[in-house]
Amino acid sequence: MPTFNLQPMFSPKSIAIIGASGDERKLSARPLVNLRNQGYKGTVYPVNPKYEDIAGYKCLEDIESLPENIDLAIVSVSAKQALPVLEQLAERLVKSAVVYSSGFSEIGQEGSHLQHDLTDFINRTRIPVCGPNSLGFYNQSEKVIATFAAVDFDIGDPVAFITQSGAFGSFTYAMAKEMGLGYNYFVSTGNEAGVDFFDYVEYFAQNENVKVIGGYIEGARDLEKMTQGISAAEKNNKPIILMKVGSSQRGAEAASSHTSSLAGNQSVYESFFKQKNVVQVYDEEELVDTLALFNKGKISPNRGDVGIVTISGGAGIVMADKCEEYGIQTANLTEETTSKLKEILPPFASVNNPVDLTAQIIQMIDHFEESLNIVLEDENVEALVLYMQLGDAIAPQIIPKLKQINEQTDKTLVICWAQPSQKTKDALLDGGLCWLPTPTRAIKAVKNLIQYNEGRERRGQTKNDLPEQKVSEIAATTTDLKNAKTEYDIKQELAGYGISIPRGALVKNVDDAINCVEDIGYPVVLKVASSDITHKSDNGGVKVNINTKEEVIEAYKSIISNMEKNYPSANIEGILIEEMIKDGIEVFIGCFQDSLFGPCIMFGLGGIYVEVLSDVVIRKAPLSEQDAEDMIRSIKGYKILKGTRGKVPSDISALASDLVKISEFCWQYKDSIIELDINPLVVKSKGEGVVALDAAIVS
Amino acid sequence: MPTFNLQPMFSPKSIAIIGASGDERKLSARPLVNLRNQGYKGTVYPVNPKYEDIAGYKCLEDIESLPENIDLAIVSVSAKQALPVLEQLAERLVKSAVVYSSGFSEIGQEGSHLQHDLTDFINRTRIPVCGPNSLGFYNQSEKVIATFAAVDFDIGDPVAFITQSGAFGSFTYAMAKEMGLGYNYFVSTGNEAGVDFFDYVEYFAQNENVKVIGGYIEGARDLEKMTQGISAAEKNNKPIILMKVGSSQRGAEAASSHTSSLAGNQSVYESFFKQKNVVQVYDEEELVDTLALFNKGKISPNRGDVGIVTISGGAGIVMADKCEEYGIQTANLTEETTSKLKEILPPFASVNNPVDLTAQIIQMIDHFEESLNIVLEDENVEALVLYMQLGDAIAPQIIPKLKQINEQTDKTLVICWAQPSQKTKDALLDGGLCWLPTPTRAIKAVKNLIQYNEGRERRGQTKNDLPEQKVSEIAATTTDLKNAKTEYDIKQELAGYGISIPRGALVKNVDDAINCVEDIGYPVVLKVASSDITHKSDNGGVKVNINTKEEVIEAYKSIISNMEKNYPSANIEGILIEEMIKDGIEVFIGCFQDSLFGPCIMFGLGGIYVEVLSDVVIRKAPLSEQDAEDMIRSIKGYKILKGTRGKVPSDISALASDLVKISEFCWQYKDSIIELDINPLVVKSKGEGVVALDAAIVS
User: Fold this and answer.
1) Same domain, yes or no, for B312 and B430?
2) Which sequence ranges are marked TM in the entry (chains A, B) (predicted)?
3) Which of chain B's termini has less CB crowding within 10 Å, N or C?
């Protein structure tokens, strides 16, 4: 699907306002008042037959009177009127529109019809319409205010914020302001009848006035658009920071009634975002803090850990604890650093990370400055968090020094100044410094920056191995898997993909069984082959550890008689005889269809790991080698595979390679496989490979 | 140890200031200025030969000139002068003192001597001294300001705050103010030379002006004081809310250099606090939010879950997600509630929890009010969080309604009003409402309240089973365990405590072995008995699954010969023959000595659970039945014991009972056991008991 041209929407030279009110107390008067007050430079055409002019703009009587090719139409009419108005606008060749009206899919049946028609209109005309049921949007730098929300333009940062909840987005807008961060672009996507959350992501990824993209999202609607938007941002080195909600059952239900988006499988989202280096945040403070930090933070040439410098021992302890909790490292300072610090700091200061300068450092501002530079210059430090807790009196001496240090370093400097007065906060922010309000919040945001920088480097190294490229290489298959019903058939299909299965054969009588075992070699396993029987091992359909010809005969007969008893009407296709694999670690690999992500691969260790501990990882197919390795490393049971306490490590690279193959198999047959379950797959010792012992498909 | 009388310290009728400065720019002038400015009602005696009077108070020339029995002396002199000054004050029968000076144990060797002497002084005279290296304290209601920190008394809530970091404590003081919460008491404990963190807890527990006790703690110094302080608070129904830091390696190291307190084993602290229903919080915002909520929250007669009402779908989704994340429930509203809501709310509102009234409710304030009452009246709701996001215009209509609802309900009502103006915030707080700033923070604090209320109920029910009472019942033993070296001896000791061990005997020759097996019955296990051999099974010292007389003879000889080969100099005391226990789930129970908590019991499932997953729980001994059950339930492997997928449940009550017995054993022998390791202990099916298969002691 071609992308929308959102340039006329966000950077319009002309704006028509349909349903503009002359009554300033009304919400529908807001956009016009806003445009006038903020000094929008383009042409504005209010359309309302009742007025001669509104807010100093000449009024037009109807849409027909509008000039052609207007860039943006603000549609402030009822839900039922919206589509007729848009049709008229389309005749005037309008280039984009925003519909505020509620009364679409969020109200149920009746509204869904209206929304459906609106979607048709957008698809047919390719006119991008923001909304409906949207708070609208703004572009601060060009004073384009297409929202009826109250806006107050003072700080403009190169940050674009996209939200599926207008109210929640506005809340973060106000929170961000308190952090000294002003979104240059803000858009409330509403019900997304045609223009999708990730259409906006893609637009901002290509907008040179945007450096960081933030958002609140309940659910994505289109995997292709999501992938495309994220890729565009990555290509242009723009971090995306998303708060994805709806992880709980209740939350997901509420999301589906809120903007009728599907919250989806949280863990697939998580692994998808992680894989694409999208920064996922988990609460509203982490969201604005991370945006504020990414707006000012740096990507230093070398990766490293966190340096902590405080004037309070307590804050240092808290920050060290939080580093560990959030999975980043408190930097090991080099001996050079600590001995330099020792030279200039008083004896009761702590020169190890967290460095405690103590409050007395304030009487030695030069040493304070030098200490910060020493820590910043440490090769193990990627970002430095400074905790300060001082009154206004000392701030004017300190802040210019901090500003200077920040300008001179290529590393990220975060100032956690506790409860600053407005004056001090303004001085910090005007100085271009990144201020974060508490030690815990500072470390949480820094964690996101460090992990993002790390991910960026990792992605840079493995770019040739991205699954997106593989997707196009895997030809769509014409065969479906309808005929692969029994374990034997499925294994044959898997084997065709290079996945190891046990040596074996399907036999139809005892003599063939005996002959076949001579080829395979003892011990063997006998299993009934029937697409009618699902739980074969529970009802006498499987015999393991068969070591002699006599045992083969007995096992064969016993399976047949058990099946005749337990499944009298089942169609038995034969007995599958396979070599018995004794040693190795059992894992399972599954595949299921997610409504958004398509085929997803689940992986974990068997037995209690999955049943008791839910120690499972999920990623969308197809997988790259890197994805497969990440999946294997991310489960708790990884230690088992790696070999604990002197035990031999398992063949992890063979496992990774089979995960990739299985994911490609599932991708290729995505239209015919509902579920695939390979359980167990045995991972042998390093160098000895893996074997899929059992496989079942729901198709 | 008798407790200190802290009444003269916090509620002094007279205050002497030693080293009072007349120069208002100096820090040492602050207390005096503060006392005057705030209007302290008692008598103040500045002591300084250089002045006639300071700040309107008549100056005394020296300590000798002070009247006797002054309640509080503020000692503002150097570290070296502090003790001589205190000795002089003791002669004047001063009742308490505070020492600000740094230069004690926090600076190392030299300071440690000074602090040691100070501790001696305090123990000898029983004069409570706050500090040294302390920011001091205040009592807002009586205008007692014994701190040189800047204080600004406006809001006074019945909250006492105790902190081991003056700076961090002051930071939370300022944060709390922003939340509309003013600590009535604040104390910076400094190095705690004599008066300990929990001495203050105990004092505030008995102070009728205090309702909630909060604190920042790096480490406790005395288990008895801690237990006593917490018990006093519980007896008086006062919640304790603590932020315990130093959970990370780096953090713990920093804590030990900061106030020379030991951060200790975090998981023992956690289980101890949980057991005692102390609310442990993990960051500075959670700390002040929880204090603010506990100050205003209610303990309703019935336990229940969280009702969520919003005017923004997004905020509702976030709160539902956070309930799940924090382990509390979003209440299931009764059918009565939802149908009542349906009657009065517009059709696009959501009447399920989270209830979304939508922003349009503001045009129907009566329905808004009614909706809140309907949800509050639901029997499944214990606390209600209301999310609001409105400008100032509507606030004066809404807030009086909220106030009225809050006064009429016996349930907790939390108002999460997003980014209120100062005016709106003041109106909310003046109305006695509990305001919390963000959806995530509101739910986190509510979680603490709900869990505290739950814990209170639980503690009320199990009060007769508290381990404190057991401790006194367990007589101190006179025997030590020096003679119990071999597995056999240790098992005999355990058996004496009622702990089940396998049937068996120690034999010294093959004939005795054969006879003994006839009593026990096959199959049996043979193990070498020697205190010189630790890893018996690794070197041929153990033979299992012995089924015949011949196998007994062979096993016996083989063990002896293996030992002669592998441990030529070991003293072999014989062979331990035991019945072989085949079925059951293997767990381990260990005991170790913690420097603060004394003997602690570790418990977990064997094998990978402990080695790979670190699925282990630790509590201090002795344990109550309730503790033991809580421990068992808290590990991830509990599902295994409970019986997954139709498997028979294990004998959990026998396991709990043995955990209690083992903890009592460790408690009784705490002076002679360094470590005890029972691994494995086999838990058989329900009703069939448990058996300790192996046991080792480090003594």
Assistant:
1) yes
2) none
3) N
B270 touching A, CB under 8 A? no
CA distance A256 to A130: 19
Half-sphere exposure of A478 (CA within 13 A, CB side): 0
Q: Do both B212 and B273 map to the same domain?
A: yes
A25 interfaces chain B, CB cutoff of 8 Å: no
Structure-token pair, residue A475: 């030809």
Determine, yes or no, domain membership for A409. yes
Rounded Cα distance between A86 and A519, Å, is: 74
Q: pLDDT for B363-408, tens place per residue?
A: 888 999 999 999 999 999 999 999 999 878 889 999 999 999 999 9
- Chain B residues touching residue A165 (CB < 8 angstroms): 312-315, 317
Contact A165 B350 (CB under 8 A): no
Q: What is the DSSP string of B301-363?
A: SS--EEEEEES-HHHHHHHHHHHHHHT-PBP---HHHHHHHHHHS-TTSB-SSSEE--GGGGG
Which string of DSSP letters, residue by residue, matches B213-242? EEEEES--S-HHHHHHHHHHHHHTT--EEE
A285 at interface of B, judged by CB pairs closer than 8 A: yes
Of all residues in chain A, the one with the smallest CA distance to B217 is A314
Out of B170, B253, B320, closest to residue A251 by CB: B320
| pLDDT confidence bin for B148, thresholds 50/70/90 | confident
Nearest CB neighbour to B320, from listed A164, A170, A250: A250
Q: Residues with Cβ < 8 Å from B461, sequence gap 6 or more?
A: none
pLDDT value at residue A3: 82
Nearest Cα residue in chain B from A175: B419
A459: in domain: no
What is the average pLDDT value for chain B, to the nearest integer?
Answer: 90
Is residue B119 in some structural domain?
Answer: yes
CATH number, domain with residue B619: 3.30.470.20
CATH number assigned to the domain comprising residue A534: 3.30.1490.20
Which residues in A564-591 are b (16+ Cβ under 10 Å) and which e? eebbeeeebbbbbbbbbbeebbebbbbb
Q: Is the dihedral of CA B286, B288, B292, B297 positive or negative?
A: positive
A609/chain B closest Cα distance in angstroms = 10
Give me the domain span that covers residue A114. Answer: 1-129
Q: What's the pLDDT tens digit per position in B630-676?
A: 999 999 889 889 887 667 899 999 999 999 999 999 988 888 888 89
Q: Is the pLDDT of residue B442 over 90?
A: yes
pLDDT tens sequence across A480-522: 666 667 888 889 889 988 999 999 999 999 999 999 898 898 9
Q: What's the gap in Å between the CA of B639 and the closest CA on chain A?
A: 6
Q: Do A438 and B216 touch (CB under 8 A)?
A: no
Closest Cβ–Cβ partner in A106, A285, A314 for B168: A314
| pLDDT higher than threshold 70 for residue A464 | no
- ipTM, 2 decimals? 0.91
Which of B164, B250, B636 lies at the smallest CB-CB distance from A330? B250
Structural domain count, chain B = 5
CA distance A220 to chain B (A): 15
Which residues of chain B lie closer than 8 angstroms to A438, CB-CB? 175, 283-285
The string of pLDDT tens digits covering residues B26-82 is 777 888 888 988 899 999 999 998 888 888 889 999 999 999 999 999 999 999 999
d(CA B178, CA B292): 11
Q: Give yes or no for a cis peptide into B132 (omega within 30° of 0).
A: yes
Band (pLDDT 50/70/90 cuts) for residue A171 is: very high
Asked if A641 and A628 touch (Cβ cutoff 8 Å), the reply is no
| DSSP annotation of B670 | T
Does the residue B107 lie in any domain? yes
Whether residue A165 and residue B314 make contact (CB cut-off 8 A), yes or no, is yes
